[in-house]
Amino acid sequence: MREVAVIGVGLTKVGHLFSESLRSLFSRAIRGALEDAGNPKIEALYVGNMSAGQFNNQENIAALLSDFAGLNGIPATRIEEGCGSGAAAIYNGYKAVASGVHDFVVVGGVEKMMDTTANDATSIISTVTDQEYEAFLGLSLVGINAMVMRLYMNTFNVDREPFAKFSVQMHENASKNPYAQFPFKISLDKAMNSNPVADPIHLMDCAPLGDGAAALVLCPKEYAKDFTSKPVEIIGAGHGMDNFIFHTRDDFLSLKAIRDAAREAYRMAGITPDEVDVVELHDAFSITAFLSIEDLGFVEKGAAGQLVDEGLIGLDGTLSVNPSGGLKARGHPIGATGVYQMAEIVLQLRGEAGARQVPGAEIGLTNNISGFGASSYVHILRV
Amino acid sequence: MREVAVIGVGLTKVGHLFSESLRSLFSRAIRGALEDAGNPKIEALYVGNMSAGQFNNQENIAALLSDFAGLNGIPATRIEEGCGSGAAAIYNGYKAVASGVHDFVVVGGVEKMMDTTANDATSIISTVTDQEYEAFLGLSLVGINAMVMRLYMNTFNVDREPFAKFSVQMHENASKNPYAQFPFKISLDKAMNSNPVADPIHLMDCAPLGDGAAALVLCPKEYAKDFTSKPVEIIGAGHGMDNFIFHTRDDFLSLKAIRDAAREAYRMAGITPDEVDVVELHDAFSITAFLSIEDLGFVEKGAAGQLVDEGLIGLDGTLSVNPSGGLKARGHPIGATGVYQMAEIVLQLRGEAGARQVPGAEIGLTNNISGFGASSYVHILRV
After folding, report:
1. Disulfide engineering: B335 pairs with which of B5, B28, B50, B82, CB 3.0-4.6 Å?
2. Which of A9-23, A88-102, A130-144, B153-167 is least confident?
3. Chain B residues with CB-CB distance to A77 below 8 A
């Protein structure tokens, strides 16, 4: 297997982009990434998207999007893996380059969610959980997260405040990110007293609905220097999976898919968690962020809140978490999220993250999950 | 790149399978393929499915289906490419083995269409065409096919009879196929006088709606002999693409995506069209079959009807077309169709196709398309 580098990044601001379409968003991100990479000749396209079928009544989107992005003719593959679609597309694009199938590929993630009502969007998002054993019975994704958050709070004797502080930090970071959906700060009081959604989850614990697209250009590391002065190498790629139905799992407070993906990625990269400078993880809800921080091996189980409390996840903390603002405040255009995560890490490792730059970041990690951790991908990058 | 062989095949009968679910169908096909292959240790799963989101309100299906098929833990990738989803999944699985990423992979295609009404299913199928430039204006997939069939009839001075004869042949073949949705013969009179759907397309020119799943086990050719006495090698794999919006294409009577995919596959296989003994092609409508026969290089443009008229596409013809009964009569569970096609060719080349066996078949070809030829995959197999 060959070493693989990211040589181009493109992304759109996340938001309720009513003047943009699925294809216009995607094309914008792809053109951005190609320009950033110095316009190499692209051999294949991988598209991460959760549900253009349900959100936009549009399937067959790899062929459509490649045509509109000016890439007609090359193999174009649309990959769906719920909320993890973006990272799944990266994982497949990475393997294609590493194995020698292709030299230059572009991976794009896109989701155009705001063509539907918020009500419909919530139903559509619940289709990443099991329709026969979970959603059919009224258990939505926020419902699963709420039960786990309650169990976590009881088990580890933690109240809502560290969760609320996490969201405050995400908005603090997003206020410095020009691509963020919510580029403004919120107070701890606002986070604590926002409307309850599914107790103990309040509105400020939840990632919002939004439209967006992001893209990356990958190529063999040996060619990267011809296209950029700052190639960022993918030094680890791991995949994990768990029982699909949540209530059949052994442990409700740990996501096995993340643990397995992280173990594989750390081993491949030859590093330990404490060597990671900056991480973009999947804070669909603040409880998901806490489980991720722990299952990625950064702290012991139950100790994520303490890390937040001590102010250690900020841009100058011991572990900078989601400098982009994360799913909470950068936004969560579902199938694009995994690609946004890696785009952010690439900008951080290049030192091009502007006001939200993590000082001296050299090793970064991304973690994107599907459903409530049915599957997970971890990628580790180094400049 | 390594040589790749198919060592296992599994498939379900196609039909309105109201007692089966998406996961039960898929698991059945996967278990069949694994048993047929002698239960090798599988390293990755590729799932071809068009729209479980719209048909079954279920996304994130690779994780779900791998769990229920007993394959939890390995990388599982769901690939969507409209009606070509099955072949797209094969193409990706094939590349993974050829390039050395994995040794043993299973590719499964599944579509559970009959959980919705026929009306809804027709709308969902139209989401493979462009929602902004085609479907939104009332132009459905059958509408595009009808306009092309009319143009074809006028251009080449052909009437409806050769098209109807094609469908009669498909039912003749299906009557010998235990997996077929419609395992019975129809008369030419019935085909000619079935209800018009979108003039000049009549009901008997159309593939039906149906549920089904099919699966294949792939591995490097060098390992195949340890698992089967009759490995079938994939000697050619080609991909092609066209303008997504039909009315922007240069030629309305030829599908560039098929021509390009076929050229690539023939070149890789080192054969010419006349060396192909048996083909499974994409007869979503009888006009699509005619265009495919021509664009795959078997006859000149406009001459497909003559081939049918002269009785040359039957099981003992010069070019046996769709011994399975094709999309028309074997059935067209959309995301599974490309996998059904290759499963049929494997059975034919092994000499295990029973009453529908093409005598002495040694080289077979599959062609699956998305939309009205927005993209296309051609695979060539040899025993």
Report:
1. B50
2. A130-144
3. 79, 81, 88, 92
Give how far B78 is from chain A: nearest CA, Å: 6
Minimum distance, in Å, between the CA of residue A52 and any CA atom of chain B: 9
Inter-chain touch A59–B64, beta carbons under 8 Å: no
- Closest partner residue to A79 among B74, B78, B371, by Cβ? B78
Choose the CATH number for B138-207+235-382 among 3.40.47.10, 3.20.20.10, 3.40.980.10, 3.30.450.20: 3.40.47.10
State the 10-residue block means of pLDDT for chain B, 383 residues long: 97 97 98 98 98 97 97 97 98 98 98 93 94 90 96 98 98 98 98 97 97 98 96 98 96 98 98 98 98 98 96 94 98 98 98 98 98 97 97
Name the CATH superfamily housing domain A4-117+210-224.
Thiolase/Chalcone synthase (3.40.47.10)
Q: Which residues pair with B44 in a beta bridge?
A: B105
pLDDT at A97 over 90: yes
Asked if B241 and A53 come within 8 Å (Cβ–Cβ), the reply is: no
Which ipTM did the prediction report?
0.96
Q: Which conformational region is residue A331 in: left (phi greater than 0), alpha (psi within -120 to 50 degrees), or beta?
A: left
B129 chain-A contacts, CB cut-off 8 A: 60
Active site residues of A: 83, 332
d(CA A358, CA B7): 51
